[in-house]
Design brief:
The protein has 13 helices and twelve strands. With about 350 residues, the protein is α+β, with helices and mostly antiparallel strands. The protein binds a DNA duplex (18 and 18 nucleotides) through helix 3, helix 8, strand 9, strand 11 and strand 12.
Length: about 350
DNA sequence: TCTGGGGTCCTAGGACCC
DNA sequence: TCTGGGGTCCTAGGACCC
């Protein structure tokens, strides 16, 4: 009997796979992608690493200098976001040609909604179509909702299909730590453990009211809901409307000069303004972010009297916000973020 | 492992208003 | 004048995700 399913399509090693299509001679070699491709650049991290590089202990998020130490034979490639964006669009276009609902969820993943008898057959069809048309491999998770489908695709990697529904949820998930759930990370897992809740089963059996006291009225009950295997089940096909936008830069060497700091903030504000104008959006609020050495991050924000995408106005506002910081320590990062007004109807 | 860049949503406290 | 209850907006920070 046909019923509705949520599938999560997750491209395998997406960035690395795109790079290997462009550089087939590197197949089988350890490859690390990140920054401008210079592994000696400080304060630069890996966007991804191939399985061959992972065997040497390299992983995404690792400083390139560390990756170079661990795997001196690795090939280091610069990150090329426009290429990944283009590859992503080709994949999503393939999915949209199929008789399913498609909700894009970032560069390398999408949720698919369909009503079918045999979801494994649909998943195999999606995988084959993507591989045939783009030469990229993906894994597919099948669930009753997005949360289950998302976890299922991770179990399916690489290049497989896995079904996680209400039927096998407890069997598959109950003994796993709480941070196996999508939306519970290391910090929350630790706090849960402090309450004696270590596994998904523990959390599923917990009192939502007690969780609300510890984590807030929305988050607490939400964690309980996740532990039961529940989640959003509606596939939204309308394009995502960004809530805001930001630009930030980590400097290879700390900034200590006030004027240099102000100049960088003005530069970032100008970029954000032109991004907003290009997107046809207005900015309602400006936030300046300063990361001091060592790694102490502070933000200050202000609501604009009138929403705008005017570069001069945004730059002045950002500089005024910057003026509220104590710039008494070396600065390693500066950022400017804006919150958009909802788009005109 | 001296720790990127770009997002989203929630929380808590205070201001302010009726 | 020893003092309620609620609603909304603003700000700073935290957590999580890719």
């Amino acid at each position: 009997m046909a019923r509705s399913w949520i599938l999560h399509v997750d491209l395998d090693q997406f960035i690395a796979a795109v790079e290997l299509l462009r550089h087939p001679e590197l197949r089988g070699r350890p490859v690390v992608v990140g920054g401008s491709g210079d592994p000696t650049a400080p304060r630069t991290v890996a966007a991804t690493a191939t399985y061959e590089a992972r065997e040497h202990g390299v992983h995404s998020g690792m400083p390139l200098r560390t990756a170079l130490r661990r795997c001196p034979d690795a090939v280091f490639l610069p990150s090329d976001p426009p290429a990944y964006e283009a590859a992503s669009e080709r994949v999503m276009a393939v999915l949209r040609e199929l008789p399913v609902l498609v909700e894009v969820w970032g560069w390398d993943e999408a949720f698919v909604g369909a009503t079918v008898d045999d979801p494994e057959a649909l998943a195999a069809g999606l995988r084959a179509a993507v591989l045939d048309r783009t030469a990229l491999s993906c894994s597919v998770g099948i669930g009753d909702n997005k949360h289950q489908a998302k976890l299922a695709s991770a179990f399916a990697k690489p290049g497989g299909i896995f079904r996680l529904t209400g039927e096998n949820w407890a069997e598959v998930m109950n003994d796993r730590p709480t941070d196996a759930l999508w939306g519970i990370g290391a910090r929350t897992a630790k706090k849960l453990a402090g309450l004696g809740l270590r596994t998904v089963a523990d959390l599923a059996a917990a009192d939502p009211a007690e969780l609300a006291r510890a984590f807030g009225p929305v988050n607490g009950p939400w964690y309980h809901y996740l532990a039961l295997g529940r989640g959003e089940a509606e596939v939204v096909t309308t394009p995502w409307v960004a809530r805001g936008h930001s630009r930030e830069t980590t400097f290879a060497r700390d900034l200590t000069d006030r004027d240099a700091v102000a100049a960088q903030v003005a530069e970032l504000a100008g970029q954000v303004a032109s991004d907003a104008a290009a997107a046809g959006r207005l900015c309602a609020r400006v936030t300046v972010k300063v990361r001091f050495t060592p790694f102490l991050t502070r933000t200050r924000q202000s609501t604009l009297p009138v929403a705008t995408a005017d570069a001069r106005v945004l730059t002045e506002a950002a500089l005024a916000v910057l003026g509220r910081f104590d710039l008494d320590r070396p600065v390693r990062l500066l950022g400017v973020a804006v919150e958009y007004t909802p788009p005109e109807a």
